[in-house]
Amino acid sequence: MTDDEQLFTELAELLRPRLEPPPEVLDAARLAFGWRDAELARLVEDSLLESTAGTRAGGTGPRLLAFESGEVVVELQIDGRRVVGQVDPPAEVELELRAGAPDGPGALLATGRSDALGRFVLHVPAGVQLVTLGCTYPDGTGFRTSAVRL
Hints:
CATH architecture of the largest domain: Sandwich
C-alpha cells in the first residue's frame, strides 16, 4: 500500500463516525415517514380569532381551539404553558406535542396518553412558540393538528 493509499484509509476511518447520521436525525426521519399518512386535522374553532371579531369579552383567559379530523374532534385549552384537551368521541390515544409546523418533524416536546374519557394534559417547555399535536390510535391510525402559535 502506498503512502497516499494509507493516508486515505486512515482518513476514511477517522471520518466514518461522521458519515452516520446522528440518532436524533434518524428518529426525526422515522417520525416524518410514519406521519406521512396521518391526516391533518382542520381548525374549526379558535377563541383568539373570535375575540378579534368582538365575540369574546376582552380576550382574556385561556385560548380555546377545536380541530376536526373526520368524525373526531379534539378540543384544546391553552393556558400559559399548559395544554388541556379532550378527544371526542372519547378514546385512549397516544399523544405527541412537537415544536414547529406539521409538515416537518419538529423537536418532541411532550408525550402522553389520553384517559378512557379522551382527556389529557401536556406541558410546553418555556421558549417554544409554535406547536403541533399528533394523536395516534391503538390501530396505528391518527391525525395531527395544524401548527398553533402560543
